[in-house]
Amino acid sequence: MEMEMDEVMAGRAFEDEEDDHKREGTVWTATAHVITAVIGSGVLALGWSVAQLGWMMGPLTVVAFAWVTYYTANLLSDCHRSPHPTTGHRNHTYIDAVRACLGPQKVLICGVAQYSNLVGTLIGYTITSAISMMAIKRSDCFHENGHNSRCGVSGNLYVALFGVLEVILSQLPSLEKISWLSILAAIMSFAYSFIGLGLSIAMVICHGDIRGTLFGVKVGINDIPLTARTWNAFQALGNIAFAYTYALVLIEIQDTLKSSPPENKAMKRASLYGIGITAIFYFSIGSAGYAAFGNDAPGNMLTGFGFYEPFWLIDIANLFIVIHLVGAYQVFSQPVFAAWEMYLSSKWSQNSIVHSTYNVKLPLVPSTSFNFTLSKLISRTLLVIIVTLVAMTFPFFNAVNGLIGAIAFWPLQVYFPTTMYISQMKVKKGTQKWIFLKTLSVCCFFVSLIAVVGSVAGIVDSLKHATPFQTMY
Questions:
Q1: Burial class (CB in 10 A: 0-12, 13-18, 19+), 263
Q2: Which structural domain range is residue 419 located in?
Q3: pLDDT at 176
Q4: How many domains does the chain have?
Q5: Which end of the chain is more exposed for a tag (fewer CB within 10 A), N or C?
Q6: What is the 3-state secondary structure (H, E, C) of 231-251?
Q7: Considering the domain boundaries, does residue 453 fall inside one?
Q8: Is residue 13 part of a domain?
Q9: What is the pLDDT of residue 328?
Q10: DSSP H or E run through 306
Q11: CATH number for 178
Q12: What's the confidence (pLDDT) of residue 408?
């Protein structure tokens, strides 16, 4: 038995060296990727989301989504290798895992769901980063001219600036080679989360009571009709789901790990640390934000100007948001780039535009050079430009984030992981485990469905009050 295991491990090591590159990822680098991927712009809407659901359902919903995310992440971790979770062949991407576990007929559905949501997340991050950059300018304006001043700022310039930066960073190598960017982004996410939490707690202390109601925003208060109240509650589910966006990049993160210890075990530890830390943050920030503002909680905690002072701390928090989302953008964009470039490489195996590598020495760092292919330069730049233009057209923070989260949650976070796990681990139909997994999938489907309805209603309503490419905040 020992000799057989040695042979298996030797075979795995040979496969890992031969397939495309040697992997050096650890539990801690994977945890950094997880935190970077999960703690994103969604944290800023948690106070508003809890306000739509109230003290009874709001915090409970945040915890429930955390549990579902962690549970299905563990199922998905066992599908990184097939047909066995520790000794099978690597599946480098989410789609590879679907193909190996469920067959090619499900690949198209998964591909559309995964990559449309990856691109949707990039759009959401672009919008959020631009709003945070504008919030810095508006915060300074309010500080100088008073809180009632009109401090309108055009969003297009900041969307374009973020897009230019991402065009440059998009030429970086694969996800494994930018662990430093994920670590920096993870630090930033902790920093602005702590600032938001601290400001909320300080506000609760200042006004001396915990605000909010058992069932959230009330109908008729501040002219909120029943339909709007209902759509907002549905949209809140999408926003919380968006805050836990993770499964669509889990396999790609797991593919960066060393072969020893087994990747599925290491990834489960990374998910436990990453999602556990995230859940604590989300519960604390959502609850503190609601306690501070009650049913008037702004849609974006740090840019909705529930806080005006200290203005310099608001500026720092928003700067941290931008830095974090610059890194998170790359975590979510690299799988899109990799899939597209793999397709081009197989389609035109002899084309010089796709395969010829050019080397340019950087003027400020002569010892460092920049390697690229023309197809990589053009295709990555084009994708970032398209994302930037869409962000200018639909700059609605809560509604867009809610729609992205709602669409991604059931198919990518629940349906495919549970279905792949049943196939991979040969869970028999009718057993207790099979019934539980199927029930979980059905319940989450209906949650996603009502969240989609609420988010679409929010976008339709927002379009009545906005002019594309001329957005002012």
A1: buried
A2: 24-463
A3: 53
A4: 1
A5: N
A6: HHHHHHHHHHHHHCCCHHHHH
A7: yes
A8: no
A9: 81
A10: none
A11: 1.20.1740.10
A12: 79
